[in-house]
Specification:
The chain folds into two domains: 112 residues, Glutaredoxin (3-Layer(aba) Sandwich), CATH 3.40.30; 187 residues, Jelly Rolls (Sandwich), CATH 2.60.120.470. The chain has six helices and 14 strands. Strands 6, 8, 9, 10, 11, 12 and 14 form a seven-stranded antiparallel sheet that branches. Strands 1-3-2-4-5 form a five-stranded mixed sheet. Strands 7-13 form a two-stranded antiparallel sheet. β4 and β5 form a beta hairpin. The relative contact order is 0.14. Keywords: Disulfide bond. This is Thioredoxin. Pfam families: PITH (PF06201), Thioredoxin (PF00085). Belongs to the thioredoxin family.
C-alpha cells in the first residue's frame, strides 16, 4: 500500500503539516506529462523514507485543490515543496528526479541524526515539541524566540492558570493531547480574570518586522467545569507597537491602535483551535515591542482563553539596553 498522503482539502494539508516534522508535497495535475514521468520516483522515495510523525509525502492535485496551489504560488507542474516544522524550506520546479532525490534524502539524514542524538524537539505535552498551530506564512519564519520573556507584562490574568511564558511555549498545547498539562500545579494556558479583557505587553530582543500572529484558543480543552463557565475565544484584538511599557485598559481605549482585528468563528481551525491573524505588514516594520489588547470574546461569557501565540516575520538588529525606553519617549509616552 502506498504511504503517500493524497491531500483532500486545505484543512487536511494544515493537519498534515502540524503532525509531521518534515512534509514533502508534490503539486501535480492529471493532464501533466512530466508529472506522470516523475511520479514513480516520488512514490519510491515515499515508500523508502516515510516515517510517521517525522517524514510525510503528500500529493496535491492543483485542479482539485486550487486554494492550496494559489496560497503557495504554484505556477508550474510539477512543483515539489519541502516543509520543516510547517515552514517551506525548499522548492523544486519541474520534473528533476536527481534534485528531488538529493533534497529529500538530505532531510531524511538530518531527521535520522536528530533522532539518534535524542534531539527531536518533542515534549511530553503532545506529538511534537515545536508546534505552530497553522501553516507558517510563506517566506516568514517563526520569530517567537525573539521575545524578551523577562519583560513580559500581562494584565487581568487568572493566577490559577499558566504563567506568562506558557503563552509562548513551543510545545503542542496539552488540551489538544487530551491530557492534563505537564507536572506542576498550573495549566499551560492563560485565562482572563475579572472580565473578558486581557492586556499583553510583549517586548523583543531585536528590532523586528512582524508579519502575522497565530492565536490558539481551546475553550473546552480542559475537559472539566460547568459548561456555563467555559471561557471564550478572543474576538476583537487591538495591536499597539513600540510601547515602552504596558497600557492600562482605560489608556488603551483612548489610544489609537496600530491595527484592530476581528477574528471570525470561521477563522478558527477546527483541528488545532488556531486562527491566523494577518497584520498590515507596512505598519509593523522596525518594532521593538507589541501590545495586544484582547477587547472581548466571542460569546456571552466573562472570561477569555489563549493557549498559544506564535509570531512570524523578520528579525533585525539586536536591541541595545535602553533602546526600547528611548523609542517610547520619542513617541510622547
Amino acid at each position: 500500500m502506498s504511504k503517500t498522503v493524497q491531500v483532500t482539502s486545505a484543512q487536511h494539508f494544515t493537519q498534515v503539516l502540524n503532525s509531521s516534522r518534515i512534509v514533502v508535497a508534490d503539486f501535480y495535475a492529471d493532464w501533466c506529462g512530466p508529472c506522470k514521468a516523475v511520479a514513480p520516483v516520488y512514490e519510491q522515495l515515499s515508500s523508502q523514507l516515510s516515517r510517521p510523525g517525522t517524514i510525510t509525502f503528500t500529493k496535491v492535485n492543483t485542479d482539485m485543490q486550487k486554494e492550496i496551489a494559489q496560497s503557495y504560488n504554484i505556477t508550474a507542474m510539477p512543483t515539489f515543496l519541502i516543509f520543516k516544522a510547517g515552514r517551506e524550506t525548499k522548492r523544486i520546479r519541474g520534473a528533476d528526479p536527481k534534485a528531488l532525490d538529493a533534497a529529500v534524502k538530505q532531510l531524511a539524514q538530518e531527521a535520522a541524526t536528530a533522532d539518534e542524538g535524542g534531539s527531536t524537539g518533542e515534549s511530553s505535552g503532545g506529538s511534537g515539541g515545536y508546534w505552530l498551530g497553522a501553516v507558517a506564512p510563506r517566506n516568514y519564519p517563526d520569530i517567537t524566540d525573539q521575545v524578551d520573556t523577562l519583560g513580559l507584562d500581562f494584565l487581568n490574568l487568572d493566577g490559577e492558570k499558566g504563567d506568562k511564558r506558557s503563552l509562548l511555549a513551543p510545545s503542542r498545547p496539552s488540551a489538544l493531547a487530551g491530557k492534563a498539562a505537564a507536572a506542576g500545579p498550573k495549566n499551560d494556558w492563560l485565562e482572563s480574570d475579572t472580565d473578558e479583557q486581557m492586556m499583553l505587553f510583549i517586548p523583543f530582543m531585536a528590532t523586528l518586522k512582524l508579519h502575522s500572529v497565530h492565536v490558539t484558543s481551546i475553550p473546552s480543552g480542559d475537559g472539566g467545569g460547568d459548561s456555563d463557565e467555559t471561557p471564550l475565544r478572543p474576538k476583537t484584538l487591538k495591536f499597539y507597537t513600540n510601547r515602552s511599557h504596558n497600557l492600562g485598559f482605560d489608556e488603551a481605549e483612548d489610544t489609537p491602535a496600530t491595527q484592530e482585528v476581528e477574528i471570525k468563528p470561521s477563522d478558527w481551525d477546527p483541528k488545532t483551535g488556531t486562527a491566523k491573524v494577518e497584520l498590515r505588514f507596512v505598519k509593523f516594520q522596525n518594532i521593538t515591542s507589541v501590545v495586544i489588547f484582547v477587547v472581548d470574546g466571542d460569546g456571552e461569557g466573562e472570561r477569555t482563553r489563549i493557549d498559544r501565540l506564535r509570531l512570524f516575520g523578520e528579525t533585525g538588529e539586536k536591541r541595545a539596553m535602553g533602546k526600547l525606553e528611548k523609542i517610547g519617549d520619542e513617541q510622547g509616552e
